Prior knowledge:
Blueprint: H1 3-6, E1 12-15, H2 17-24, H3 31-42, E2 47-51, H4 54-59, H5 66-77, E3 80-82, H6 86-99, H7 103-114, E4 119-121, E5 136-138
Parallel strand pairs: 1-2, 1-4, 2-3, 4-5
Helix pairs in contact: 6-7
Amino acid sequence: MTLNDALNGVSKVGIDASVIIDLVEADPTTIAVLGELFLRIERSELLAIGSVILLTEVLVRAGGNPTREAVVRDLLALLDLRPVDVAIAERALVLRRTYRFATPDALHLATALESGCHAFVSSDIRHFPRASNEIAILVPRNLTV
């Protein structure tokens, strides 16, 4: 499936930490699709939502390298970062119980769901596809440009 097909009718997407990590690490299996996705976000063709916990989860991966940290911060600046409120925490609880997600994963997905996203983008093929009845799960390595 192409990215265009996957985003047909989608105006708002949730972004998982794995997406930012793949971009920063230039994962060859996802870089073309994620580059195009973030180009659309940068052009305001697509609204991207993320949990504020992305700051902690992704910046730690920069390893204290100022250049990598700047890249991460630039990518995060393109997202509408949402705080964890009671509704998101409650939704995350249900997701944890239902799918046995780790707390960060549940919070990322709950943020997307509570923010009215039409799709959730994640490179994590172990967990999120189980929740495909909740929201469309877009796995970059399964898409083409």
